[in-house]
Amino acid sequence: MSARPDTASTSTEPRFYEQTWDLSYRHALGETTSKFLAGLAEGRIWGRRDPASDRVLVPPRAYSDRDHVPTTDWVEVGTEGVIEMFTVVYEPFRNLPEPPYALAYVTLDGADTALVGYVRGVDLTDQKKATEALAIGTRAVVRFSDTPTGTVADYWFEPADGSA
User: Fold this and answer.
1) Is residue 104 within 8 Å of residue 83, measured between CB atoms?
2) With 110 labelled, which of 5, 18, 82, 132 sits at a CA distance of 20 to 30 A?
3) How far is the C-alpha of 158 from the C-alpha of 9, rounded, in Å?
4) Confidence of residue 3 (pLDDT cuts 50, 70, 90)
5) What are residue 5's DSSP bridge partners?
6) Which sign does the torsion angle of CA 113, 118, 121, 125 carry?
């Protein structure tokens, strides 16, 4: 990590503090994430049931996000759903795709929480058209890699109507 205070500021101007973080992690996946990633490699999306609310959590969690009780049954959900939120990124970020690219949160059929993923199949160079193609409430479909790696890179979303 490197840090550099902004020394050119005066007392009447806002001050800034820049930081750069470069961290690498090695995560122990555990049973829940391992099964989810294995499912992606097979072209399937798994969730877990929250016994207190009967919600299906996707991506699956080992514990309920509401009351912290262990989740129970594994539930396979659909590969289509509704866009709940999206963003189009036009500025570069280190270790992320070259812009423009889009991310969307999609609540898949049979799930009660949204899954985040990259969006393909949309022309992102025209902001107005991209926003229309990814509008909240738009149906999206999950596509899977022909060469899965057992990571979240094994899937992405596309508009379900194929019109983008």
Assistant:
1) yes
2) 132
3) 46
4) low
5) 17
6) positive
Task: In whole angstroms, give the CA distance from residue 68 to residue 53.
Answer: 12
DSSP output for 79-105: SEEEEEEEEEE-S--TTSPPSSEEEEE
The residues near 127 (Cβ < 8 Å, ≥ 6 apart) are 88
Integer angstrom CA distances of residue 127 from 87, 124, 134, 148: 11, 6, 10, 31
Q: What is the pLDDT of residues 33-54, one digit of tens each?
A: 999 999 999 999 999 999 999 9
* DSSP-based three-state secondary structure for 121: coil
Averaged pLDDT, 68-77: 97
How many Cα atoms within 13 Å fall on the side-chain side of residue 55?
19
| SS3 (DSSP) at 19 | strand
pLDDT of 133-161, one tens digit each?
999 999 999 999 999 999 999 999 999 98
As given in the structure block, the two tokens for residue 108 are: 């898949």
Q: Is 101 exposed, middle or buried, given 0-12, 13-18 or 19+ CB atoms closer than 10 A?
A: middle
Which has the closest alpha carbon to 136: 111, 163, 114, 110?
A: 114
